[in-house]
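JOB MANIFEST
job_type = single_chain_structure
chain_count = 1
residues = 243
[input]
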Amino acid sequence: MRTELETDRDLSMQIAAAIRDAIVEGGLIVDQRLPSEAELCEQFGVSRPTVREALKRLAAQNLIRTQRGASGGAFVNRMSFEEAYGQQITTSTLLLSMNEVDFETACEARYALERACIALSAQRRSADHLATMRAEIHRQAQPGLTDEAFCASDVAFHRALVDGAMNPVLSYQLAGAVEATQPLMNMITFTARSREEIVGLHTRIANAIEAQDGAAADQALADLTAYTLTLAEQVRAARAQRG
């Protein structure tokens, strides 16, 4: 594990990064006990509060867990994809908002990634995935559904589509793409969209996936992409006329 520190940078952050790198590279394995606080102080040449701050950073990232008692200490944690979803979504949302990503860029990225797994979903989806998609389509068709609830249902539909690929790496990578971009896209297009049109496109996707027809599912998703971009153009044109 790298123990050299740069004195002009945050020491606890550097220590946390060194331990994280050791975990990623396999120098520290799941369930392995980390050196004690005293040992880490000696290795890095820092005070105990600095080491404790570094360990807090690692615990906040779910990379380590602490146990009390004679056999206690800090241990390398076993992370699951499900536990990491929240961080992925939060990071993606912050990146989009802080960098003011335009609608077309977000839409292009989101649907390109989603289309990359739709054929797998058509082949591998479970009955539960399909049932979730059908339930969300039914929910979206309810006349009294609020825009916020419709957006949440839209996200749930596409998460079921992605998860149907039965590939946890894809699900993790697409968690941010779907859940961070969908609210942004809905916020821009909700005034112009036709819920009936979206429900129809979602139904086409679900029908194709149920029939295990990857090509038809891909085409339906491509049509949804085109419809979404058209909505954005309509919204911009309407705003320009009012301005």
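[summary]
Residues 11-76 form a domain with the Arc Repressor Mutant, subunit A fold (CATH 1.10.10.10).
The CA atoms of residues 53 and 139 lie 46 Å apart.
exit_status = 0
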